[in-house]
Amino acid sequence: MDHFEYSGGVLHAEAIALPQIAEAVGTPVYVYSRATLTRHARVFRDALAVLPRVHLAFAVKSNPNLAVLKVLAAEGYGADVVSGGEMDRALAAGIAPGDVVFSGVGKTAAEMRRALEAGCGQFNLESEEEGQELAEIASAMDKVATCTLRINPDVDAGTHEKISTGKAENKFGVPFDRAAGIYARLAALPGLNMRGLALHIGSQLSSLDPLEAAFTKAGALMQAIRAAGGTVTHMDLGGGVGVPYKAGDVFPQPAEYAAMIARVTADWDVTLMFEPGRVITGNTGVLLTEVVRVKQGAGHPWVVVDAAMNDLARPAMYDAWHDFSAVAPTGARMTANIVGPICESSDTFAMARDIDVVARGDLAVFRTAGAYGATMANTYNSRPMVPEVMVDGDKWAVVADRIEPSTILSAERVPEWLE
Ligand SMILES: *Cc1c(COP(=O)(O)O)cnc(C)c1O
């Protein structure tokens, strides 16, 4: 459910016709709907309200835009961050440091120090080595780092291999059968307050079954740790709930997710922590683009749009599908390949797709581009950094500027010895 709908034959974001944004800001541009964002944040939060004690930490990496974080902060979300840069954004958006969870396999000593100084609420440790390092750093600063230990439950999330994170061959967490020993050793270190386990088995999950299998394993491990005298007060169940990218696809609803968790965790007696990303922001955005030209080829025509894999990497990286809709469709359909201008064949959004007929100069959108969209953008082929706009009813604003290639060029230097 989102607020990108046709009105008078023209696609709108809430009350704003998309051509108005294209004219003022240019294309490509990400357009976010605040009402959609708020709605998703509330549906997820309200669904989990059936659980006794809950902490929500929005996965900043899915959409780190400051305005997006501001909206989520106001909805009571904390932040799950995976770098010092993401932590700075969360704090800049007004999220309390105590509501920040620091995840990631490669936290540097400098990042750990800064997070401790800022009062970061929880570190999700990904290894015994990381825990030992954090313990030393915290002790030297006369602080105690509150932590969970991320386990690798060795469960196949059934999603794209590049976004699977819970199989034994993935780099994340500690091996399941060594976790209890590592937990006990880390809990004995001064400088650490070990309070639970964390897991996150992957992203864009289309079924709750792998999550249930992983949570069940985590619950058994939690009970084993407690039986051995350890303390567990928090269990961080990660993110991963998928969203439908194709019109008509059916995905688990937040209420079903919550019901499954209520069942699995009924006797856990912990604060349950969550790190949702895509399920909050996926539907919140579209990538608005203009057709540069339609080129006839050996097979289907090539619709060349001014957005490219540097603006929206998911199709090139994960073979991902984004629905494509004309902003002012005529009702006619065509079968075409949709590609960007970048000089490699992976710059392909769709092959042999049934789409609205579009021609040179027409506007169109890639839908469900609010998560892992702008956040992965880059400037490959010396293209501009794609801008972002947020719409709120009949108001809209640029929430991230287009960064022109000239600005990027101005940060480069030719050393004297090359002159
Ligand atoms: C990416 C990530 C998330 C968010 O995943 P979604 O699929 O977007 O919900 C949560 N936790 C961790 C540790 C992550 O790496």
In words, what does this structure look like?
With 419 residues, this protein is an alpha/beta fold. It folds into two domains: 4-32 and 282-410, Lyase, Ornithine Decarboxylase, Chain A, domain 1, CATH 2.40.37.10; 34-280, Alpha-Beta Barrel (TIM Barrel), CATH 3.20.20.10. 28% of the residues lie in helices and 25% in strands. The protein has helices spanning 18-25, 34-48, 66-74, 84-92, 109-118, 128-140, 179-187, 209-227, 254-264, 278-281, 314-318, 405-409; strands spanning 4-7, 10-13, 16-17, 29-33, 54-59, 78-81, 100-102, 122-125, 145-152, 174-175, 192-198, 234-236, 271-274, 285-295, 302-305, 324-326, 333-339, 348-356, 363-366, 388-392, 395-400. Helix 4 links the parallel strand 6 and strand 7. The protein is globular and about 70 Å long. The structure holds pyridoxal-5'-phosphate.
How would you concisely characterize the structure shown here?
By secondary structure, this protein is of the alpha/beta class.
Structural class given helices, strands, pairing? Answer: alpha/beta
CATH superfamily membership of the largest domain: Alanine racemase
> How many strands appear in the DSSP assignment?
21
Number of helices: 12
Question: Can you tell me the residue ranges where pLDDT is under 50 for at least 5 consecutive residues?
Answer: none
Please state the second-level CATH architecture of the largest domain.
Answer: Alpha-Beta Barrel
**What is the CATH class name of the largest domain?**
Alpha Beta
Distinct ligands: pyridoxal-5'-phosphate
Biggest pleated-sheet summary: 9 strands, mixed
Distance between the termini: 57 Å
Radius of gyration: 23 Å
- Helical residue percent band: 25-40%
Assembly type: single chain
Overall number of structural domains = 2
- CATH topology call of the largest domain: TIM Barrel
What global shape is seen? globular
